[in-house]
């Protein structure tokens, strides 16, 4: 759009005759025109700093653009306060950019420590992996885990001075010892056999696809079966965690308190982080997604939608891990009282009058639900770290809480847990049903004992 077209725009009609407009540079005139249109849309009288912040967000204006706007308003006679406001807002926007730069430098320090990349695996292995990925033989999460475990095996074998060969028992023992040691260090001296079992499961899965000799397959399968039995005799770690983190009601109260307290935090990026954490806990309780699905599908306009009629948010997507087996999408409409958590992430520090406009923008641009202070998407591991900060364990625990919280309601609790977890397997539900029935039997037995004891105490010995 050229200068004449900009000056002829309806939203500039009331200032078209201002003599100062003709002396503005093209950049200054452009940003001024954008701002006047924003003021008209927002029905602003005298804009404040908070309005300029929203303008920068809505129209993707840079700090330099906001600084130029402040100077332009001053030159057009709006008053020195607008130049000061423009400079102040520009500084706040620049702070976000500097924050992004500092954060980025932190990410670049990552180094592999206990595995090797796929390109360092044997050539025939790489060909098999390409075949598996190209034909989508397994779910993406399974393929990622398989590559990780193969990289760990290669690392352990090479560190022990051995050939990277799944048919080498000594190399497999080196991997077993390394994983067992690391797992024990992270779990108070006791390794988690579920992790070891899943490792051998992926090695066996790959060995089958890679055409390994039957002797190798038998060895891997035998070890996997032993680890499976050891896993089943070991108390599930998540059950121990469930006993220590409290009920969903307690966690939801904590999330409400954290969100309320966030407004009193002076530091802007810490306020942002607190809002993110509060939402992660609250939303995680009613949509107990796997961390991978949070990263991939918890996105405005993609997996999260807003219904104008009912004024509630709906999560609607097909979980990645089970997409091959259960293609039917998960659909969960939030209670209106949960809106405050998503609204807080949409608004940030902006005024509530801009909620509708910002929500529309985020839906159109498909902004991830959780972003850093600088606007970049939170990494996949962030969600579990947020849960760990509050509960001491990762976000996966929310999936067990969904069943555990309603254990006392019997069949309703089972159906609720199954629905929000998007579980279709009868085995999973039967496991929880068995636990419920066993718990009810114990309660009934103890209740009977108590009644017998009370009755015995009231019996008076005959004379």
Indicate the topology.
Blueprint: H1 3-7, H2 26-42, H3 49-59, H4 63-75, H5 80-107, H6 123-134, H7 140-159, H8 169-186, H9 193-209, H10 214-233, H11 237-245, H12 248-262, H13 268-286, H14 291-297, E1 304-307, E2 312-317, E3 330-333, H15 339-347, H16 355-365, H17 382-391, H18 397-404, H19 411-421, H20 426-458
Structure description:
With 463 residues, this protein is mainly alpha-helical. The chain has three domains: 3-99; 118-234; 246-421, Intergrase catalytic core (hpI Integrase, Chain A), CATH 1.10.443.10. It has 20 helices and three strands. It has helices spanning 3-7, 26-42, 49-59, 63-75, 80-107, 123-134, 140-159, 169-186, 193-209, 214-233, 237-245, 248-262, 268-286, 291-297, 339-347, 355-365, 382-391, 397-404, 411-421, 426-458, and strands spanning 304-307, 312-317, 330-333. Strands 1-2-3 form a three-stranded antiparallel sheet, with no helix packed on it. β1 and β2 (312-317) form a beta hairpin. α3 crosses α5 (80-107). It is elongated and about 90 Å long. The termini are far apart.
């Amino acid at each position: 759009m050229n200068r004449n077209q900009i000056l002829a725009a309806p939203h500039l009609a009331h200032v078209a005759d201002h003599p100062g407009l003709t002396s503005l540079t093209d950049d200054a005139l452009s940003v001024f025109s954008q701002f006047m249109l924003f003021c008209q849309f927002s029905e602003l009288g005298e804009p404040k700093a908070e309005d300029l912040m929203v303008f920068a967000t809505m129209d993707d204006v840079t700090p330099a653009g906001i600084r130029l706007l402040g100077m332009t308003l001053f030159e057009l006679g709006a008053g020195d306060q607008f130049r000061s406001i423009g400079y102040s807002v520009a500084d706040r926007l620049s702070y976000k950019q500097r924050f992004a730069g500092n954060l980025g430098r932190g990410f670049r320090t990552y180094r592999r420590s206990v595995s090797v990349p796929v390109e360092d695996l044997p050539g025939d292995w790489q060909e098999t992996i390409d075949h598996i990925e190209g034909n989508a033989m397994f779910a993406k999460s399974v393929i990622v885990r398989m590559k990780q475990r193969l990289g760990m095996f290669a690392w352990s074998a090479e560190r022990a001075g051995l050939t990277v060969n799944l048919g080498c028992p000594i190399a497999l023992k080196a991997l077993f010892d390394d994983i067992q040691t690391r797992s024990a260090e992270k779990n108070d001296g006791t390794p988690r056999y579920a992790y070891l079992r899943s490792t051998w499961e992926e090695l066996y899965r790959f060995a089958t696809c890679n055409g390994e000799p039957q002797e190798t397959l038998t060895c891997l399968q035998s070890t996997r079966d032993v680890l499976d039995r050891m896993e089943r005799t070991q108390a599930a770690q998540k059950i121990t965690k469930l006993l220590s983190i409290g009920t969903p009601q307690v966690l939801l109260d904590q999330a409400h308190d954290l969100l309320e307290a966030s407004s009193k935090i002076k530091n802007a990026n810490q306020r942002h982080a607190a809002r993110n954490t509060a939402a992660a806990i609250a939303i995680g309780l009613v949509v107990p997604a796997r961390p991978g699905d949070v990263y991939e599908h918890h996105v405005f306009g993609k997996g999260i939608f807003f219904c104008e009629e009912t004024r509630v948010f709906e999560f609607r997507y097909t979980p990645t891990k089970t997409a091959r087996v259960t293609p039917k999408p998960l659909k969960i409409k939030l209670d209106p009282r949960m809106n405050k958590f998503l609204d807080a992430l949409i608004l940030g520090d902006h005024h509530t009058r801009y909620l509708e406009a910002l929500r529309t923008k985020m839906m159109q641009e498909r902004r991830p639900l959780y972003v850093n202070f600088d606007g970049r998407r939170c990494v996949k591991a962030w969600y579990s770290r947020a849960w760990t900060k509050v509960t001491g364990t990762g976000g996966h625990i929310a999936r067990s809480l969904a069943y555990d919280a309603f254990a006392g309601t019997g069949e309703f609790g089972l159906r609720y847990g199954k629905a929000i977890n998007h579980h279709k397997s009868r085995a999973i539900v039967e496991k929880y049903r068995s636990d419920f029935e066993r718990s009810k039997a114990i309660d009934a037995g103890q209740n009977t004992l108590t009644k017998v004891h009370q009755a015995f105490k009231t019996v008076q010995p005959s004379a």
